[in-house]
Amino acid sequence: MNRVVVTAVSAITPLGHDIETSWENLLAGKSGIGPITRFDADGFDARIAGEVKDFDPTKYIDKKQARRMETFTQYSVCATKMLMNDAGWSVPEEEAHRTGVIIGVGLGGLATIESMHSKLLKRGPSKISPFFIPVLIANMAAGQVSIEAGAQGPNICTTTACASGTHAISAAYTDIMLGRADAMICGGAESTITPLGISGFTAMKALSTRNDDPEAASRPFDSDRDGFVMGEGCGLMLLESLEHAQARGATILAEVVGSGASGDAYHMTAPPENGEGMALAMKAALREAKVEPEAVDSINAHGTSTKLNDLCETRAIRSVFGEHADNIAVTANKSQVGHLLGAAGGVEGVFSVKTIAEGIIPGIANYQTPDPDCDLKNLVTDGSRKQQVEYVLSNSFGFGGTNGCVLFKRYEG
Fold first, then answer.
1. For the chain, what percent of residues have pLDDT higher than 90?
2. How many Å apart are CA 341 and CA 168, to the nearest integer?
3. Residues in a beta bridge with 35
4. Positions of E strands within 266-401
5. Is residue 302 flagged as an active site residue?
């Protein structure tokens, strides 16, 4: 089996248009959440979101090409250009068939569907663009990135709701570990802050309606949490076999040592209250890595700020880690960027790698009132914490009872 390492990361988030700005603002405790500006949200119950504001894709993509991409695909291609620049590497022609792309997308081109449906109703079927289908399909992020990078290896989209990005990283890690590829671009992307997207999640009573205080609306594990805040963006990483990375003299940020997946087999949208499915995924990641629970220093929690998720994740962590759960530094990035749906695991995976590389754990914002049912004793709620960590577990759980975890480790030669 090949060892798998992370050699570059990139991100476009509500906190910044690149990984450096996003990470700096995350550590500073800033919020990327505010009133919705993409459309007139008056009359909506939820009027706040984590938007990527003022992003200009034409800094990285030809204007004509950009017009033929949905926003989630634009983010993916732009983030890839940043990623490969950070890696100091481009795919050699002779290695193209050994380099792949796996990008998780939860919903895909919702804005395009809304726009074309409106055009259909108003002007008839002859006015529908021939690019309608190619633009909206979720796998176009991976497809366009493959074209951009010249990667002819595995070209896949994982669509597993809010676990999409994490499952993409897991699949890419597996491909390299098993020798199917030498390098993989992987992560997650999403952009569904649209009238239909907000309306759909609002109808489920899933979104926070703390419209008068948007920056404080996403509050994982806090007793007064009232739902998640929708976000958007993209988080990617370059995975390589250790041998490939060493051969080209790459900087190694972290190592991927385990991944786990499971199904709740319980309900369309609600996890079982004992967190059993979540616990199974965490145990699977530890088992694959041959790591005892006591070795884990930090968990980047799914932490959606919904009543049920945070309760279930707490119980799952306690189930897996026992008394050691109180020693694990638990954070939740959604408190500052919102819930990026299919991109969540990609962005949070990137932030987990940065935690290892820089020895800083971002804090959980907006934690004010402890919830006795979310009784983890080492929630990082007092700002970012300088702490060298060996292992970080990144969790993602999605509708349909789909669960995914990736275990990152500090690289040691």
1. 100
2. 13
3. 48
4. 298-300, 329-331, 360-361, 385-386, 391-398
5. yes
Annotated catalytic, 339? yes
State the Cα–Cα distance between residues 408 and 53, nearest whole angstrom: 30
Q: Amino acid identity, residue 162?
A: C
0.90 exceeded by pTM: yes
* Cβ atoms of residues 210 and 34 within 8 Å: no
The pLDDT value recorded for residue 413 is 83
Instruction: Spell out a b/e string for 321-360, using b for 16 or more CB atoms within 10 Å of the CB, else e.
Output: beeebeebbbbbbbbbbbbbbbbbbbbbbbbbbbbbbeeb
Task: Return d(Cα 245, Cα 248) in angstroms, integer.
Answer: 6
List 162, 186, 374, 405, catalytic entry: 162
Q: Hey, do 4-247 and 258-409 end up sharing a CATH topology, with the first three levels equal?
A: yes
Domain ranges of the chain: 4-247, 258-409
Distances (CA, A) of 88 to 17, 85, 193, 243, 250: 19, 5, 33, 17, 8
> Is 97:152 a contact under the CB 8 Å cutoff?
yes
Dist CA 387 CA 378 (whole Å) = 13
| Interval 218-249: pLDDT, tens | 999 999 999 999 999 999 999 999 999 999 99
> Catalytic one among 234, 244, 302, 374?
302
In whole angstroms, what is the distance from residue 87 CA to residue 69 CA? 25
For residue 395, give the 3-state DSSP assignment. strand
CA distance 289 to 20: 30
**Architecture of the CATH domain 258-409:** 3-Layer(aba) Sandwich (3.40)
Report the distance separating Cα 354 and Cα 75, nearest Å.
Answer: 20
Task: Name the residue type at position 119.
Answer: K
User: Is the C-alpha dihedral spanning 377, 380, 386, 392 positive or negative?
Assistant: positive
Q: How far is CA 374 from CA 108, 265, 307, 377, in A?
A: 33, 24, 10, 9
- Tell me yes or no: is domain 4-247 CATH 3.40.50.1370: no
CA dist 280 and 403 (Å) reads: 9
**Which residue, chain included where needed, has tokens 């309608």?**
132
